[in-house]
Specification:
alpha+beta; 22 helices
């Protein structure tokens, strides 16, 4: 017999097994929280130095309130990052130092807040909790591991998405009080990342749908004022004129970038060359846009005869307004990314930082579909949502969990290199960025408000037994390899040591997919270090290894001469 909403199986799931549904919902939540708590480090990376360490220095070097507000609102690149700077101040005041781990975890909290907001929308539909199971699987996964583990991205993308969606929620619920709260929240979101400026457009569409024209006028006026003030003081247009030229000459590439950005959650084959890798995200983006347009077409609109202002008080219409606002926010943002970033190369469309956006869009489309499809079709929609959610979740953990763990080792080694060699957390030897980051971090350490983490090989004793190694220079990086090791390796760092400097770089071998997922013992090691990171000198090459027989540092007869 075909599956129907009245079948005994569904009745059983609805009435007898809600705890099983809650356990399934808890699984991605707890796993996501555990990897964030385990692998987020108190280490700045590139933009973190300017955005937070230099900001704290500038903020406390001035005395007047006006000057302090100036540094809070001072633009960084093409964004103002008010929330991120407030989070930096909060962690500094509460812990007494720059706590990048704390800041990153604060940003991650907003992913759970977004899940809670989606659940509030879901509960308004009065559906069994089983129908919500796909949502945390889609939303909480490590495809966007850089957002999870990098302070500046975690304090921008998850935070601003939650703030902007909260604004759409407040506006969709109508009521004068909610509008009064939505207005300052939208201003705050706009000052926390430029993407949130699109919320003025999306929010205006909601107010127009509701027929609140006085509020729409106020909203529009405040939006214009905020946008004008936002761009004041910007001296770097990030080459946007070149983006317009790119659009004129290669409009098809901008469209492909837009679709691939939207369909980024379907990046199921990230190891392929971009030409082949981009097929699934582009097709997925086209499909998601089609679903969004179909769902929007099913909604009631002011230009349709059956629409009345009394509909604004129905749960269905309020949810429709929320979905429309969020769709506008995400789709306009995708169009902006496709227009402004595609000229840097197709790979930017699938960068880890951005993958939270398509994940959220799929969650919204799924919830919108639960409300829109017929009662008879809803079980099929739920099953499709669960299959898609499990595919995204499983694929993300399969490909990106090893990558996230490797990055954890990488930034620990980079922090060691920065502390002992003055380079590692950004820049290259001899560049402006090298000196900028070194001076900022040295000043923070000297003044006591940043402490580098302990060396990852501090407890590794040096052995006099020689170790075979091979060094090659390829693509401006040194590749260090060793094979035929006596014991399987669980963790290793290549060690490059001169009389003046010692560098670390983690082995990639333990994080290769077969080794990682099959727990396959490996007696081969490989690591890579950019040649531009090395200061001049003659370096002997060795390995700091951890195996079942213990820990040790062994050197080979290979040397690297850096000039």
């Amino acid at each position: 017999m075909p599956f129907s909403p009245n079948s005994s199986l569904q009745t059983s799931l609805k009435t007898r097994s809600p705890w099983l549904a809650w356990l399934l919902i808890a699984l991605p939540i707890l796993l996501f929280a555990s990897i964030a708590l385990r692998f987020v480090e108190n280490i700045p990376w590139y933009d973190d130095v300017e955005m937070f360490i230099v900001f704290i220095q500038d903020y406390y070097n001035v005395d007047t309130l006006n000057e302090k507000v100036y540094w809070l609102l001072e633009p960084n690149n093409e964004h103002r990052i008010l929330f991120a700077k407030l989070a930096a101040l909060f962690t500094y005041l509460t812990t007494g130092h720059m706590n990048f781990r704390g800041m990153t975890l604060i940003g991650n909290l907003f992913l759970f807040f977004s899940l809670g907001l989606l659940y509030a929308i879901f509960r308004s539909m009065r559906l069994p909790v089983w129908a919500f199971v796909p949502v945390p699987f889609i939303l909480l996964q490590p495809q966007y591991f850089m957002t999870i583990s990098w302070s500046i991205t975690s304090l921008q993308h998850p935070v601003v998405l939650f703030l902007s969606c909260s604004v759409m929620y407040l506006l969709s619920r109508s009521g004068r009080n909610r509008f009064v709260w939505a207005l300052p929240l939208q201003i705050f979101a706009s000052l926390s990342m430029s993407n949130a400026l699109f919320g003025w457009i999306s929010g205006g569409v909601i107010l127009w749908r509701q027929g609140h024209y006085k509020r729409l006028a106020i909203w529009g006026l405040m939006g214009v004022v905020t946008m004008v003030l936002y761009v004041r003081g910007f001296d770097n247009a990030q080459g946007h004129g070149q983006s317009l030229d790119f659009l004129i000459h290669k409009p098809h590439m901008v469209i492909i970038g837009f679709l691939s950005f939207i369909g980024g959650s379907f990046d199921f084959l990230p190891v392929l060359p971009y030409f082949w890798r981009g097929i699934l995200p582009t097709i997925g983006g086209l499909l998601l846009v089609g679903v969004a347009l179909w769902l929007i077409s099913q909604m009631k609109w002011p230009f349709r005869r059956q629409f009345t202002t009394s509909d604004n008080r129905s749960v269905r219409t309020m949810n429709d307004n929320f979905f429309v606002g969020c769709y506008g926010l995400l789709l306009i943002n995708a169009a902006a990314v496709g227009l402004l970033r595609m000229r840097y190369g197709y790979g930017v469309m699938l960068v880890s930082n951005y993958m939270i956006y398509p994940a959220l869009l799929i969650c919204l489309l799924y919830l919108n579909g639960l409300q829109e499809v017929s009662h008879r079709q809803r079980p099929t929609w739920q099953r499709v949502g669960l299959v898609v959610g499990l595919l995204i979740w499983g694929s993300s953990y399969f490909w990106h969990l090893p990558e996230m763990l490797y990055r954890n080792k990488f930034v620990r080694a980079a922090a060691y290199n920065q502390e002992h060699n003055g380079i590692g957390l950004g820049g290259q030897v001899g560049t402006f960025l090298e000196g900028y980051i070194k001076n900022a971090l040295d000043g923070a350490v000297k003044k006591g408000y940043y402490v580098f983490p302990a060396s990852p090989v501090a407890d590794y004793p040096e052995s006099r037994e020689p170790l075979r190694a091979v060094v090659q220079l390829a693509n401006e990086s040194y590749i260090i390899e060793s094979d035929g090791l006596p014991d399987p390796i669980s963790e290793a760092y290549a060690v490059l040591q001169s009389p003046e400097h010692t560098y670390l770089t983690p082995a990639k071998t333990p994080y290769r997919l077969p080794t990682f997922w099959l727990h396959r013992p490996s007696r081969v090691l490989q690591a890579e270090l950019r040649a531009s990171d090395l200061r001049p000198g003659t370096y002997r090459v060795g390995w700091a290894r951890s195996s079942s027989t213990g820990k040790s540092i062994q050197f080979s007869d290979q040397v690297i001469v850096a000039k």
